[in-house]
Design goal:
Helices cover 40% and strands 15% of the residues. The chain is of the alpha/beta class and 369 residues long.
Length: 369
């Protein structure tokens, strides 16, 4: 039986707890919330390889921001955080997200994505049981998930909110498990929880193991641009700022117990993405003026096809109609403009790239060890 919990709105002065807030999407969301509300933000992050305080540069010193270094799977730490800050909302971005890493070693994905989500749900439920009726009615737990839980599409069709789950990698399976837990805590305990499933994000502050920043930085350094299989795998690309806007709208306007797909309506093959990056780089930092690439003649000449990875889903595409029609959200970025702006950001922020990779990451890594 569905719990009858009314739609509610968070007050702009409330405290929002953002887990994984020093990561790529989380840090962009922190900026988005600070720019659009007067509320406080508590950032919880374990600061693993992909999370860095450098991602919060310019906002970490805001008096409305509190940073806590902690693992979301640590029940003691989460209990203490919830008791001290008593958030009106929790937005869970914290996750291990790289498919290749999940194939190499699934355990961290189980610990963070499943156990960590379970601990957050338990801690949030304990908080709501201590709240006043008014505070309990407006509390929200928003879990950020991925379109990868749905599996792979054929040449046609779109993922909808009612698409059956069919994860094909340990990463996707761990996120699917977490989604099921969140749903169960709404139906079993009445925790006012919402799930969002997004398509592939891109934009500033993305750790350079993901496709777009990896290709930009490899190209600038004259290194190979490795492309899985035939390069025909299709993804729906969503600018991170559009994703953050969608998450905040779902948090404020979404109905507890529901899920919302957030997509960019920008399907591209991996090969098209890489060609777009090369074209943008030729305009921003021409190959004939880049000593690392000049001998090759062009950035396109750096492309290199490599064996496909196991369980590589062929196509993802999201139907974001529910977000648009029910919540009034639409993406503001088209892919070509957003991609060029992203390339410009990485070209202008090479020092950030060097700093976040320092001693922790070899950019040759794409695929399995």
């Amino acid at each position: 039986m569905r719990c009858n919990i009314r739609r509610g709105r968070l007050a702009s002065t409330d405290t929002t707890l953002v887990t994984g807030g020093a990561g790529f999407i989380g840090s962009n969301f922190v900026r988005h919330v600070l720019a659009r509300t007067s509320g406080k933000v508590v950032v919880v992050d374990k600061l693993t390889y992909a999370g860095s305080l450098l991602n919060l540069g310019g906002v970490a010193d805001d008096p409305r921001v509190t940073f806590i270094k902690a693992d979301i799977a640590d029940r003691v730490a989460m209990d203490a955080t919830f008791r001290e800050h008593r958030p009106a909302a929790v937005v869970n971005f914290a996750a291990e997200t790289h498919v290749d890493r999940s194939i190499d070693g699934p355990m961290p994905f189980i610990e963070t994505n499943i156990v960590g989500t379970f601990v957050l749900l338990e801690t949030a439920l304990a908080l709501t049981r201590e709240q006043s009726d008014d505070d309990r009615k407006k509390f929200r737990f928003l879990h950020v998930s991925t379109d990868e839980v749905y599996g792979s599409l054929g040449s046609e069709g779109l993922f909808r909110e009612d698409t059956p789950y069919a994860p094909n990698s340990p990463y996707a399976a761990s996120k699917a498990s977490a989604d099921h837990l969140v749903r169960a805590y709404f139906h079993t305990y009445g925790l006012p929880a919402i799930i969002t499933n997004c398509s592939n994000n891109y934009g500033p502050f993305q750790f350079p193991e993901k496709l777009i920043p990896l290709m930009i930085l490899n190209a600038l350094d004259g290194r190979a641009l490795p492309i899985y299989g035939d390069g025909g795998n299709v993804r729906d690309w969503l600018h991170v700022e559009d994703h953050c806007a969608g998450v905040l709208i779902a948090l404020k306007r979404g109905l507890p117990g529901e899920k919302y797909n957030i997509g960019g309506n920008s399907e591209r093959t991996n090969l098209q993405v890489i060609e777009g990056i090369c074209a943008a780089l030729e305009s921003i930092a021409p190959a004939d003026s880049n000593a690392a690439v000049k001998a090759r003649g062009s950035y396109m000449a750096l492309r290199s096809f490599v064996p496909d990875r196991p369980g590589h889903d062929r196509r993802y595409a999201i139907d974001a109609g529910r977000m648009q029609h029910e919540l009034g959200w639409r993406p503001a970025h088209d892919f070509e403009t957003g991609l060029r702006a992203t390339v410009e950001w990485y070209v202008a922020n090479r020092e950030w790239c060097r700093a976040v990779q320092s001693d922790r990451y070899d950019r040759e890594r794409l695929g399995l060890h």
